[in-house]
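Lab notebook: predicted structure, single chain.

Context: the supervisor wants predicted structures on file for every construct in the current expression panel, including those that have not yet been purified. This is the next one on the list. No modifications to the sequence; it matches the entry in the shared construct table.
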Amino acid sequence: MFIKSISYWSFPGGLEGTRPVAEVFDLAKRAGFEAVEVALGDAGDITPAMTERQAKDILRSAAEAGIRISSVATGLFWGKPLSSDDPKVRAEAMDIASKLIDIAGWLEAGAVLLIPGAVDVFFDPSSAVVDYDTVHKRASEAVAKLLPRAQAARVAIGIENVWNKFLADPLAMKTFIDQFNSEWVGSYFDVGNSMLTGYPEHWIRLLGRRIKRVHFKDFRRNVGTADGFVDLLAGDVNWPEVVKALTEVGYRGFLTAEMIPLYKHSPEVLVENTSRAMDAILGR
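Prediction complete. Output recorded below exactly as produced.
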């Protein structure tokens, strides 16, 4: 069974962390979603300073709204990558990752979105370029250190395919995941992100049981930049093939719409449009 979910970042104030999470739960439920992916940030209801008691209050708000928490994401790894050349930054990134897992455990989310490292940051030309082999080594070491914590919390580490010039094809992702030989390390597969260099249905069939969570985004290939991300059904994703592939590999879980950027005007309409598009994609 697929569970229809949406990212906290898809709501006005989400990226900034200024929108109360309880409000998002209510809005998501009214729009027809069953779950919300929450986000750890420097500001807002969910930060690295969060306590277990605060997390339980948020979990209670979700239950009152009739919403499940599908996963916990964070954008903090772009500024503090686990693969940084600076040992201090890597240590800070490990602290973020550890807290991310703890919070996901408290929220009974079952999974976190982890960016394991980056060769560069595509939206920041001033960012350092780190050798691919070095990124692979540091990312592997970081995930290995995080694994016992994740297993104890019963939280899957979902490695996302992002535009970090690392694990940019499904075989590389599969090999990276398999080195840990653990059910607690898998793929957080992003449909839209895979479109730049490949086909999401190919990724899905190669990753199979390794997929722990799925992001829904659409993308226009002829744009070829971040400006190519568009509304669901407005891009080049072959949605019937994506759903067919997910069904074939036996994926039964959360499908989370991550709709960025928001509309310039009346951004709240994006949530309603996304809900209707997901219903069409899933044949509901």
